């Protein structure tokens, strides 16, 4: 498929930011090329890999014109790689695919049809998360059903998944309208090497975008070590760095949005404090606790006490 300015644009551009992904990236590309019922291209941006895997992608691109490979001269992070891929792509919709993940058959055609039918600027389905122990759904089905379309408040609440179950919403991989991104100058924040997805979704909603959620599964994600879901305090600290940027954009936000943002910040800070205390850094843990609103700590303490009492009643012997 040639893009010389005269050929029609594909329905979907699948964007893959790739860095030292070995053979995994070829499996990701194949899962995209195997999609049916629509036209597509796969735009791979190699973020200065050193393992030689870019040559395998180059060989595949020589065999299939739908695959287009670009190389960055310096390692710049996933946000920069994805922005470059979007700039080089031509599809009506943008689909993000991590280099070690994959699409289930028929996913893209289904999402395109739903996006058109429901006039969505973005649409996301549920994800199957796999590791050596097995697999599970990324997001609770009932939450997906209750949160369609997604609001800023729901997005911020989903930033504290350990309180409501599942993974952080930044793991979500929606189909994005190129026209909406272009009209509102929305791009990944290249200063971030974590939470760049979350910030993009926030910017889309803040610009008035309609992000629809569908509770079916179409994306398979490989669980990574030291992810937010595993309680990595370094990750939590880095996620907290996005708080001020979001707060500045929410100065004209609703009371509910601001409350959800404050709650998210408290929850993240508490996770940092717990991690500090677990590894014996009492001073750092205490400082983190002092940075949490007393009202949040009180609610957490009351909930913990109620839950503990409930367990004791369940374990108590019955009278006979």
What does this 3D model show about the protein?
The C terminus is likely disordered. The chain is globular and about 60 Å long. Strands 1, 2, 3, 4, 5, 6, 7, 8 and 9 form a 9-stranded mixed β-sheet that branches. It is built from 14 helices and 9 strands. The protein has 320 residues and is α/β, with parallel strands linked by helices. It folds into 2 domains: 213 residues, Spore Coat Polysaccharide Biosynthesis Protein SpsA, Chain A (Alpha-Beta Complex); 82 residues, no CATH class. The termini are far apart. α10 packs antiparallel against α12 and α12 packs antiparallel against α13.
| Spatial shape | globular
- The total strand number stands at 9
Query: What percent of the residues sit in helical stretches (DSSP H or I)?
Result: 40-55%
Mean pLDDT equals: 85
Would you tell me which CATH topology of the largest domain applies?
Answer: Spore Coat Polysaccharide Biosynthesis Protein SpsA, Chain A
Tags for this entry?
single chain; 46% helix; 14 helices; 2 domains; 9-stranded mixed beta sheet; globular; disordered C terminus
Would you spell out the secondary-structure blueprint of this structure?
Layout: E1 12-18, H1 24-33, E2 40-46, H2 53-63, E3 67-71, H3 78-88, E4 93-96, E5 102-103, H4 107-117, E6 122-131, E7 134-137, H5 141-146, H6 152-157, H7 161-164, E8 175-177, H8 178-183, H9 196-206, E9 211-222, H10 233-240, H11 243-249, H12 255-278, H13 282-290, H14 294-315
Parallel strand pairs: 1-2, 1-4, 2-3, 6-9
Antiparallel strand pairs: 4-8, 5-9, 6-7, 6-8
């Amino acid at each position: 498929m040639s893009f010389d300015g005269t050929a029609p644009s594909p329905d979907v551009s699948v964007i893959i930011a790739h860095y030292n992904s070995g053979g995994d990236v070829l499996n990701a590309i194949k899962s995209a090329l195997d999609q049916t019922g629509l036209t597509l291209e796969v735009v791979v941006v190699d973020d200065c890999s050193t393992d030689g895997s870019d040559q395998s992608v180059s060989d595949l691109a020589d065999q299939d014109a739908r695959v287009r490979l670009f190389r960055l001269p310096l390692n710049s992070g996933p946000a920069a790689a994805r922005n470059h891929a979007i700039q080089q792509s031509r599809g009506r919709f943008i689909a993000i695919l991590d280099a070690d993940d994959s699409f289930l058959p028929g996913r893209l055609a289904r999402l395109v049809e739903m996006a058109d039918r429901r006039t969505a600027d973005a649409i996301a389905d549920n994800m199957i998360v796999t590791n050596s122990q097995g697999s599970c759904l990324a997001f609770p089905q009932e939450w997906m059903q209750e949160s369609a379309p997604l609001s800023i408040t729901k997005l911020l609440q989903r930033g504290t998944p350990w309180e409501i179950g599942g993974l952080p919403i930044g793991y979500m991989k929606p189909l994005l309208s190129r026209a909406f991104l272009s009209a509102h100058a929305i791009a990944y924040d290249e200063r971030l090497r974590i939470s760049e997805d979350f910030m993009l979704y926030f910017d889309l909603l803040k610009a008035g975008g309609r992000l629809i959620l569908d509770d079916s599964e179409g994306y398979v994600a490989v669980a990574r070590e030291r992810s937010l879901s595993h309680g990595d305090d370094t990750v939590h600290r880095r996620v907290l760095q996005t708080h001020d940027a979001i707060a500045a954009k929410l100065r004209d936000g609703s009371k509910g949005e601001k409350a959800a943002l404050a709650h998210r910040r408290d929850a993240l800070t508490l996770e940092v404090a717990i991690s500090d205390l677990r590894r014996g850094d009492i001073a750092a843990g205490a400082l983190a606790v002092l940075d949490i609103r007393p009202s949040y700590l009180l609610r957490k303490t009351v909930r913990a006490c109620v839950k503990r009492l409930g367990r004791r009643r369940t374990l108590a012997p019955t009278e006979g």
